[in-house]
Specification:
heterodimer; A: alpha+beta; Butyryl-Coa Dehydrogenase, subunit A, domain 1; Butyryl-CoA Dehydrogenase, subunit A, domain 3; 3 domains; 4-stranded mixed beta sheet; 4-stranded antiparallel beta sheet; B: alpha+beta; Butyryl-CoA Dehydrogenase, subunit A, domain 2; 3-stranded mixed beta sheet
């Protein structure tokens, strides 16, 4: 497809989508129908699988990856065209995947040929679902202080310790983990990047209950877990560079995806429900109207900025700009959620029960969940450090 | 048609070089009209007034993005010049008006200069028009007062909005026939009230178009202001970060303190979001994007927010020196606050956005 110019490519995409995108995949997506792939969960919507398979066969779940690894080998511009065409039809994403967003890009950059051929295609096809093993109870923002030990046993590693905030570890098949392979070296120099099958004996996963009532994160315990040697990516004790690069991809993707928050009901729609009035009429509350407009304007600007960062990512690297959009979209999400519960007033106080509308409870839960957006994937403070040091070049002392 | 990436980069480099050497921001806010006129002549020689005017109409045909680049660079150094008023807004007032083709060519060549007078209030409100145009002497006679008009004093002609019958129209009038009351404003920019005390305009002086044409001109002016504000924000952040890297207190550079690092990083975030919105709006202008008016509201809003934040921090982070008239920080603060006022502040922009979005 590299030989097609952009307008030819666009027509080709349009034709293909007209034939292969099921009408049911152009409807708003409830959270339980999100296509996360993997062996442990199935979307209840039957067309989800069909849509994923069609897209994966084109290589379009991972459009910029080389074909031999399950991608389509598209240029950054072609990938942008594909994204635009999918957005134009309001197509549901064919695949949600930490493998696609985070692990894949660093495997392409750091893994050896055998690892790429083994791990990338099942990610692109949505067959293996990955989770992230980074944080530990004693290593949050100070990630480099992590302790999960991997001890050399000749032809394999023995891994012991604990990870925390492992998103969806209970629903995933494999985990990419940062492990300490040299406890005597300086903190950043004794870390390696290891791929581990969660079905291996000795691994226990326990979900964490959040203030919002949901449990997207887990604690993951490793008790003398045996991991083959060929699952270590990059140089031994050279995992920190991979870890940091992966974080850039993570920040870019959580920000671009709006943290996966359901936005099918806008705050303007909420305000209409509460205040009444038809479309086109000024909202009855002028202060709220200005607040809503202010937020919408900021979000529109942020979306333009995010699109640019996405383009530079497709073209080879977003670098610290991923921190910029992570900071800004966490703030935008939180402010939107704060305003949503303010619009609903006391109706947003409900936790459960028939007295409360499901939609109001959902807004309230979203508001609680949004508090994590400035913590997960690197806190806002850590990302501000990144911008201050790596972009502005401010000194350490 | 518009310039390609390489041509734009050349234009940016040339403008950066010229502005930093010939018109660097100075702490002194009082205008020097002779110096301003000299700078404008130099811009005219470089062909800047016609950058966004198509070649067929007498311009350079580099597109709106070209004009965006220039205004951004002028904003960086707080250059007071009629480029926005004449080369962008004035030229757009005349575009597509066959009876004004000759004037448009002169505006593009810089041999004539326009100013645009839409506002009559202390708060930007181009929709409020009390100026009247009565039929008289085979043409029109204008009465009213336009307030806070940029670059009116050095313009040859003014484009003014007026109520004509039950509608609204734009008129091109001789500056010499208007009363110009120059204002000594904190930004030191050429700004005046314009008194129209029975100004006669021939029939050809009435431009085609009504209220939507007034809104369109206001949008162009807003886009220009957004570019200038982004340029100013960018330069202020550079100056501030340089200071954080050199100033020492407690035996270390103050830029090593996390409290200041985080605030500087927040300024950068605001700047980059503004950059995306402003640059995408200029590109949308060249595409003839139907959503341009909305995008320009967004661009002015976020560029104003970024410049507002950084203009406060440039003074605070410089400490005492930032409060003195010897340092340029205060000049940026004053300029920024005035530019926020022109063509819509936060509340007005938000209301207009809500109107366009239907809520």
């Amino acid at each position: 497809m590299a030989e097609l110019d952009l307008s030819q490519f666009r027509s080709m995409v349009r034709e293909w989508l007209a034939m292969h995108l099921p009408a049911s995949m152009r409807t708003p997506m409830p959270e339980d129908e999100m296509p996360w792939g993997g062996r442990k969960t199935r979307s209840p919507h039957p067309d989800t699988e069909r849509w994923l398979q069609a897209m994966a066969a084109q290589g379009w779940t991972a459009p910029t990856w080389p074909r031999e690894y399950g991608g389509a080998g598209l240029s950054a511009d072609q990938a942008a065209v594909l994204r635009e065409e999918l957005a134009r039809l309001q197509a549901r994403p064919a695949l949600f995947s930490f493998g696609l967003w985070m692990l894949g890009p660093v495997l392409l950059e750091f893994a050896d040929e055998a690892q790429k051929r083994r791990f990338l295609p099942p990610i692109a096809r949505g067959e293996i679902r990955w989770c992230q093993g980074y944080s530990e109870p004693g290593a949050g923002s100070d990630l480099a202080s992590l302790k999960l030990r991997a001890v050399d046993h000749g032809d394999h590693w023995r891994v012991s310790g604990q990870k925390v905030w492992t998103s969806y570890a209970d629903k995933s098949d494999w985990i990419f983990a940062l492990v300490r392979t040299d406890p005597t070296a300086a903190r950043h120099l004794g870390i390696s990047f290891l791929l581990i099958d969660l079905a291996t004996p000795g691994i226990t996963v326990r979900p964490i209950h959040l203030i919002s009532g949901s449990s997207p994160f887990c604690e993951t315990f490793f008790d003398d877990v045996r991991v083959p040697k060929d699952q270590l990516v990059g140089p031994l004790n050279g995992g920190w560079a991979i870890a940091k690069r992966l974080l850039e991809h993570e920040r870019q993707n959580v920000a671009a995806g709006g943290f996966g928050a359901d936005r099918s009901v806008t705050n303007v729609q909420l305000a209409r429900r509460v205040l009444g009035g038809g479309a086109g009429e000024p909202l009855g509350d002028p202060v709220l109207r200005e607040q809503l407009a202010g937020q919408a304007m900021f979000e529109e600007a942020l979306a333009l900025c995010t699109r640019r960062v996405q383009r530079s990512l497709d073209a080879g690297g977003a670098g610290p700009m991923s921190s910029v959009i992570k900071i800004a979209s966490a703030r935008a999400n939180q402010e939107r959620a704060e305003l949503a519960v303010e619009i609903l007033g006391m109706d947003a106080m409900g936790w459960s029960g028939d007295a409360f509308a499901a939609a109001a409870v959902a807004e309230s839960r979203k508001w609680l969940r949004s508090k994590g957006h400035s913590i997960e994937g690197g806190t806002t403070e850590i990302n501000l450090n990144v911008v201050a040091k790596r972009v502005l070049g401010l000194p350490d002392q | 048609m518009s310039a390609n990436e390489e041509e734009l980069a050349l234009l940016r480099d040339a403008a950066r070089h010229w502005a930093t050497h010939e018109a660097p921001a100075s702490p002194e806010h009082r205008r020097d009209p002779a110096a301003a006129a000299r700078r404008w002549r130099s811009m005219v020689e470089m062909g800047w007034p016609g950058v966004a005017v198509p070649e067929a109409a007498g311009g350079a045909g580099m597109g709106f993005v070209g004009m965006g680049v220039l205004l951004h660079e002028l904003g960086r150094e707080l250059v007071d010049a009629p480029l926005l008023a004449s080369g962008l807004v004035g030229a757009q007032a005349l575009a597509g008006q066959p009876q004004q083709a000759d004037l448009l060519a002169r505006v593009a060549a810089g041999t004539a200069t326009l100013a645009v007078a839409l506002n009559e209030r202390a708060h930007h409100a181009p929709e409020v028009i009390e100026t009247t145009a009565e039929p008289a002497a085979g043409g029109w006679r204008l009465h009213g007062i336009k307030r806070y008009v940029l670059n009116a004093a050095e313009a040859d002609r003014l484009v003014v909005s007026a109520r004509a019958g039950d509608g609204v129209a734009l008129f091109v009038i001789d500056r010499a026939r208007c009363g110009i009351e120059p204002l000594d404003t904190i930004d030191g920019r050429s700004c005046a009230h314009v008194v129209l005390d029975g100004v006669d305009v021939p029939p050809a002086g009435r431009l085609h178009g009504g209220a939507e044409a007034v809104q369109a001109l206001d949008t162009w002016a807003r886009l220009g202001m957004a570019a200038e504000l982004l340029g100013a924000a960018e330069r202020m952040l550079e100056i501030t970060v340089d200071y954080l890297k050199t100033r020492e207190q407690f035996g270390r550079r103050i830029g090593s303190f996390q409290a200041l690092q985080h605030r500087a990083a927040q300024m950068y975030v605001a700047q980059e979001i503004a950059r995306a919105a402003v640059e995408e709006a200029w590109a949308a202008a060249d595409r003839g994007d139907a959503g341009l008016a909305r995008m320009v509201l967004v661009a002015k809003q976020v560029a104003g927010d970024a410049a507002h934040l950084i203009s406060k921090e440039i003074v605070q982070m410089h400490g005492g020196i930032g409060m003195t008239s010897e340092h340029v920080a205060g000049r940026y603060l004053k300029w920024t606050r005035c530019s926020e006022q022109h063509h819509g502040t936060g509340a007005w922009l938000a209301r207009r956005y809500a109107e366009l979005a239907g809520f």
